[in-house]
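Provenance and format

Records in this collection were gathered into a single text stream. Each protein contributes a sequence line and a token line. The two records reproduced below are adjacent in the stream.
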Amino acid sequence: MRTRRPAALVLDMDGTLLDTEPLAARAWVDAAAALGLAFDAGLPERLIGRNFRDCRALIAACHGEAYPVDALMGGWHVAYDAIVEREGLALKPGVLDLFDWLDDVGLPRAVATSTRRERALAKLGRVALAARLHALVGGDEIARGKPAPDIFLAAAERLGVAPADCVAIEDSDAGVRAALAAGMTAIMVPDLVPPGPDLVDRGALVHENLAQTLALLARLPSD
């Protein structure tokens, strides 16, 4: 574990800042039903933290190349946006306290999300977080999605901070693996899926909530 405060924080979005993973899972079911398609009930958990390309590949691998993956994914966006329009977007508990502390101590922060940049900015703007970021990297801006380290390396570069000096906060197994591969200190605050059995052995911290993460960061000396 770190003995000094990090130089920057890199945060996942869905499931970490926004309580959207249950909405995404429901949208897959709604989209499949609207198209009259069979859909593996275990797939939504496997899609958490993955970018558009990787989600497409996982669905095709599960249901076969003849499955209308593109139609399903287009239907997913429609179903998801409809749910958000009806129900709105909620922040995960502790997000505002964390951002207030980051502002108070002047710690730079970025979002590294598998969601496409344009959609991510719209979602974060809707909950008044976009203006409180110093950088954002979307899943459409990097070559390889999580669990590859690309998105976290890009976030550190945009912040002008070495990856080893960053703490990453994630809710997904794929995201934590990506952060560790980038050389960051990784904290997992699980949402729908518990951590993989090897993540703690690989150096990840697992917290019950963002309040626990904030308490840890606030205890670390700044120099």
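Adjacent record:
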Amino acid sequence: MDFYELIRNRESIRNYDPDRPLDRDTLYRILEAGRLAPSAVNFQPWRFLVISSEEMLAKIRPCYGRDWFSDAPHVLVVVGKVDEAWVRQKDGHNFLETDLTIALDHMILAAEYEGVATCWVGAYDPDLLREALSLEENEIIYSITPLGYPKEGFIKKGNKKRKEISKIVEFL
């Protein structure tokens, strides 16, 4: 698939086939895209948690109570270590969120390439999720996405609505 076609085709999917988990090789290719993502000063302050067991899925699903979320056979949780991220000296800005954004975006695009559906979710209950995952004190949950194949017959909307490039780009 052409890279620009992949970007045009990728959309958030809220339709998962609970009976079609991803095979290990596909999961690892997606995770490898995150592993290879750039990070400030190459600190790589992240962990990628793939929730696949029924026991753990049952613990984390209440953190985002949508029916479609419960159908996903996997949930990817991107966790960052605040004290391991690069901090700009001039103003103390911590680049953790920047690093985690790049890594998750790489994995979401890799998933699209693999034919795997995703939906970047930020409206989860972080306290519930943190407790279910027994995270360390220095770790924050940045975002989550279900991973799975859409149910048979699902058709993408294909109608991305974006601002015109002339409205958002300036050449100075």
